[in-house]
Automatic annotation (TrEMBL):
This is Response regulator. It comes from the Bacteria. It comes from Sphingobium fluviale. The lineage of its organism: Bacteria, Pseudomonadati, Pseudomonadota, Alphaproteobacteria, Sphingomonadales. The keyword Metal-binding does not apply. GO terms for biological process: phosphorelay signal transduction system.
């Protein structure tokens, strides 16, 4: 099996990590592309003595820590706008504790593997994860709208959200209901399933909501690879079903982290 064939199944999940790490589909996907370009240009430099998935994330992390893609002008901004974007990107740089949490809670790496990927000791990585969890407890509280048509899953998500100290503005099971709830009480975060009760789409519900106002969104789906192709506008934050409690907490914390960083002081 070629190296490309070994790496291909892991690309959607690397995109998920990269987007969560940077807070942007565009920047995250740019780092993934840069990683793949390096691998294609110098395949002999790919670490062949480890699991392909681990090696792929290791190569990505080298690009993440050494490249200056954050200075790329993705939007055709003028000079003042470019300077403002540069300052904002510096302010949004994901610190090491959050990287460790994303690698373990969202991507499922062990602490030892996360340490290898980050170039730190296992003890340091474990300390980073603990620090990130403590930071979550100190994070600004938000009002969360849950869009989920499965009652048990909705209750599970609600429990996680409330245990984190956030409020739940409502639980919607259809597209129309979600939009009505969002307009009635503007949430600070939306957690949205893809398939809803009346065969409507959580993606369409989110589009309708975002047409009214800007709000961070986390999608929840059993088929993440369908929304992690890198070929079209896709979610920045995405949780895979069935999910772990720590995964939901990490995604919520990271989404709110970037929302706070971009909000006016």
């Amino acid at each position: 099996m070629s190296l490309g064939q070994q790496l291909y199944p892991h690309l959607p999940f690397l995109r998920r990590y990269a987007r969560a790490l940077t807070g942007s589909q565009m920047r995250g996907d740019a780092y993934v592309r840069a990683t793949l370009e390096v691998i294609v240009e110098a395949p002999d430099e790919f670490p062949a003595d480890m699991d392909p998935r681990l090696g792929l994330y290791l190569m990505f992390n080298r690009i993440w820590t050494s490249s200056d893609l954050e200075s790329t002008d993705f939007g055709g901004a003028n000079e003042n706008e470019r300077q403002a974007l540069a300052r904002a990107r510096l302010a949004r740089m994901t610190p090491l504790p959050r990287q460790a949490l994303l690698l373990t809670a969202m991507e499922g790496f062990s602490v030892a593997e996360a340490a290898l990927l980050m170039g730190v000791t296992a003890a340091e990585a474990e300390s980073f994860v603990g620090e990130a969890m403590s930071e979550i407890d100190r994070q600004t509280r938000a009002t969360v709208l849950i869009i989920e048509d499965e009652p048990i899953i909705a209750m599970d998500i609600e429990t996680i959200v409330r245990d984190m100290g956030h409020d739940v503005s409502g639980i919607a099971v259809t597209r129309d209901e979600a939009v009505q709830m969002a307009v009635a009480q503007r949430p600070g975060l939306v957690l949205a399933d893809i398939q809803l009760a009346d065969d409507s789409s959580g993606i369409d519900a989110v589009k309708d909501i975002l047409a009214q106002f800007t709000v961070p969104v986390i999608f929840i789906t059993a088929f993440p690879e369908r929304l992690l192709t890198g070929e079209r506008p896709e979610p920045t934050f995405l949780i895979t079903k069935p999910f772990q409690r720590q995964t939901v907490k990490a995604a919520i914390a990271q989404a709110l982290f970037f929302d706070e960083a971009t909000s006016p002081a």
